[in-house]
Design brief:
The chain is of the alpha+beta class. The protein has eleven helices and 13 strands. It has a single domain, classed as 3-Layer(aba) Sandwich (Beta-lactamase).
């Protein structure tokens, strides 16, 4: 081998090594702005915060402000669990065990007996049942009464909940519809809600520390979910990846489409939580941003306690801001700032 050829090879090797050293610099995002945001707003967020960002098949950012409150810590997420319930319902639709037009009179006779059997699964998932909801306020959206089962709760709905308007004619955010949907799935499967959500959704997504049992050991599809940041980010990654998680199809493309578009967008709004005014609702989640065709590009399912999980389909990433229950601020101001610094860190718009 000639000296000249050896020299060329050596120079090429040095160049290649230099480029390899530079690769992490170019490929890594600068999340210092996210760190600064969380540190600056830690008190406003309740003191303890967990933040995860998922992109390109992996967690690219993780922030834990305490060893005792970390990505593996189960946290009650309240209404943030409605996204899970809605996804579970769409699995039943995918399996042709339910349709969005299935009426409750076929599955919950007690509601039909009290003239409430005309409500559909779609209306249940989109808070348009027409039944009386809870009084507004963070402490009043959850059921006041404790029920041993969803069947017992349906008996209460049938006898005690007033018919305020015809189903599908008015939006009123409450726990009523999601619990009806949960009971419909129980009847179809002949299994309890906690069992079917574990079998069909949580286990396939490796959400091993997620449950719908609350501290009183009762199950409520609308408000009793407890999860970890590690678990919930798997769910978000699945939605972001068009229903696929680790090569397995969890939800069909059609189901993902339904979960990404506004439902009953033109209806009058009787009640919506603070911070969601003017936003369209899909199934279990709000469309924070929409494209020209009205399809959700940024979708979130916040808890009134301050937890914000969301997916950004435009920029292909998912994130969750998880706080201790009841410690975070109402509304979307903090979420908006949180998302803005993530976008900055990722270099996206």
């Amino acid at each position: 081998m000639s000296y000249k050829f050896k020299s060329i090879c050596l120079n090429f090797s040095l160049l290649l090594s230099f480029l390899l050293l530079l690769q992490p610099v170019f490929s890594q995002s600068n999340f210092s702005v996210v760190d600064d945001f969380i540190d600056k707003n830690r008190k406003a967020l309740g003191g303890e915060v967990i933040a995860l960002v998922w992109k390109d098949g992996k967690v690219v950012y993780r922030k834990e402000t305490s060893e005792d409150f970390n990505s593996k810590t189960p946290v009650a997420i309240g209404s943030g669990g409605q996204w899970l319930t809605a996804a579970l319902a769409m699995i039943y639709v995918d399996e042709n065990k339910l349709t969005l037009d299935t009426r409750v009179n076929k599955l919950i006779p007690i509601l039909a007996k009290y003239m409430k059997g005309y409500i559909t699964l779609k209306q249940s998932l989109s808070h348009t049942t027409g039944l009386e909801g809870e009084k507004t306020g963070i402490g009043k959206l959850a059921p006041k009464l404790r029920f041993e089962s969803l069947e017992e709760e349906m008996d209460h709905f049938a006898k005690k909940k007033e018919i305020v308007t015809n189903p599908g004619t008015e939006f009123f955010y409450s726990y009523v519809g999601m619990d009806i949907a949960g009971r419909m799935m129980e009847v179809v499967s002949k299994k309890t809600f906690d069992r079917i959500v574990a079998e069909k959704l949580l286990r396939p997504l490796k959400m091993r520390n997620t449950t719908f049992f609350n501290d009183n050991m009762s199950v409520n599809p609308s408000t009793s979910a407890q999860t970890t940041a590690n678990d919930y980010i798997n769910f978000l990654a699945m939605l972001l990846n068009n229903g696929t998680f680790e090569g397995k199809k969890i939800l069909s493309d059609k189901a993902i489409e339904e979960l990404s578009k506004p439902q009953f967008a033109e209806l009058p709004v009787k009640y919506t939580p603070k911070g969601t005014e003017g936003l369209h609702y899909s199934f279990g989640a709000w469309l924070m941003e929409e494209d020209a065709g009205g399809k959700g590009t940024v979708i979130a399912s916040p808890s009134l306690g301050g937890t914000w999980p969301f997916i950004d389909k435009k920029n292909n990433y998912a994130a969750i801001l998880l706080v201790q229950p009841g410690s975070g601020p109402d509304g979307k101001e903090m979420y908006t700032k949180f998302k803005a610094v993530i976008d900055e860190a990722l270099g996206v718009k």
